[in-house]
Amino acid sequence: MRRDYFDLAVENVDWVREGGEPRKPLVRIDFHGPEGLLQEQFAGHDDDLLDAEEIDVAFRLRESLDTDADAAGVVGVTNRVTGDFILELNEEADDVLRFIHAAREYGQSADDEGRYRVEIVVDGEELVAYDKSTFLVYDAEGNLLRGESLIPSGVEL
């Protein structure tokens, strides 16, 4: 699926820098591709839409953060059961890492499910929404960057 079919917007991340009241970070991904294509990608083995426990969210860098201050990468949502990519889109590392930092801070101050929320929207209508606690970050070689990732305590990878 083409990366240019997607637009990503985030909310509730500036409170960390501004010292405001904690709010659950939200990432909204809008799909602008062929009708029905994304719904097929989110369909599980029984044709129901995948649950939060059946998807993973990750970010893979294309350049090193050490050598490129403006490093970019790819945000991916995958089917945890099959390992198949559901969607991918290009994003700047600084924006993604700021989002992860806000989610980490929110998780330390809140008792609700998930540290952040993902909403997938098709033609202005919400297709799926997930509360998630894990957001993995990989370097350009595919190695997990534990310090940059959002990994709940007690979770072994």
General description of the model:
This protein has three helices and eight strands. With 157 residues, it is α/β, with parallel strands linked by helices. It has a four-stranded mixed β-sheet with strand order 1-2-6-7. It has a four-stranded mixed β-sheet with strand order 5-4-3-8. The radius of gyration is 15 Å and the shape is globular. The model has no long low-confidence stretch (mean pLDDT 92).
Write the layout of secondary structure elements.
Elements: E1 6-11, H1 14-18, E2 26-31, H2 37-41, E3 55-61, E4 72-79, E5 85-92, H3 93-109, E6 116-122, E7 125-132, E8 136-138
Parallel strand pairs: 2-6, 3-8
Antiparallel strand pairs: 1-2, 3-4, 4-5, 6-7
| Major sheet details | 4 strands, mixed
The shape, in one word, is globular
Strand composition percent: 25-35%
- In the predicted model, the low-confidence regions spanning at least 5 consecutive residues are none
Helix tally equals 3
Structural class of the secondary structure composition? alpha/beta
Strand line-up across the major sheet = 1-2-6-7
Number of E-state strands: 8
Radius of gyration: 15 Å
Mean pLDDT reading: 92
Q: Report the end-to-end length measured between terminal Cα atoms.
A: 28 Å
In which range does the helix fraction lie?
10-25%
SSE sequence, one letter per element: EHEHEEEHEEE
